[in-house]
Amino acid sequence: MTEQPQTEQPQPTPYQLLGGETELHRLVDRFYEYMNELPEARPIRKMHAADLSGANSKLFMFLSGWLGGPNLFWEAYGHPRLRSRHFPFAIGIDERDQWVLCMRKALDDTVTDERLREPLYQALAQIATHMINQAE
Fold first, then answer.
1. Running DSSP on this structure, what letter comes out for residue 9?
2. Cβ atoms 24, 67 nearer than 8 A
């Protein structure tokens, strides 16, 4: 009797590890709740429309594809071109730090697995740093 070669099971994506669509919505909703609530985030909140539903939807769609889930943003808007899409906004270190604060708190509230939460935080903080377009 010959042994059958074992096929490797594909590793779950961060999107799957997070819990898919439902949990990603929880993360993004919590992020914007913090942006709305935290006094420290007022400057970045003012960069957004009064109604955050459009920003919420776009962040959800971007993160979906970025995390290995459905590529919703790409399908709706094309390549994310994050940096160029953020050029109209003055983003310095303070604005980056405000965004990262809201995301850190949202991740802490919604992602229970630290093995997932910490790498997500680090990667998102790097993206936020890449958005800086103003010298201090």
1. P
2. yes
Q: Residue 84: name the closest of 124, 126, 134, 131 by CA.
A: 131
User: What dihedral angle (degrees, nearest 10) is formed by the CA atoms of 28, 30, 35, 41?
Assistant: -110
CATH architecture of 18-130: Orthogonal Bundle (1.10)
Q: Are 67 and 107 in contact (CB under 8 A)?
A: no
Provide the residue ranges of all domains of the chain, joining segments of one domain with +: 18-130
In contact, 91 and 134? CB cutoff 8 Å: yes
Enter the pTM of the model: 0.90
Give residue-wise pLDDT tens across range 98-110. Answer: 999 999 999 999 9
d(CA 119, CA 33): 22
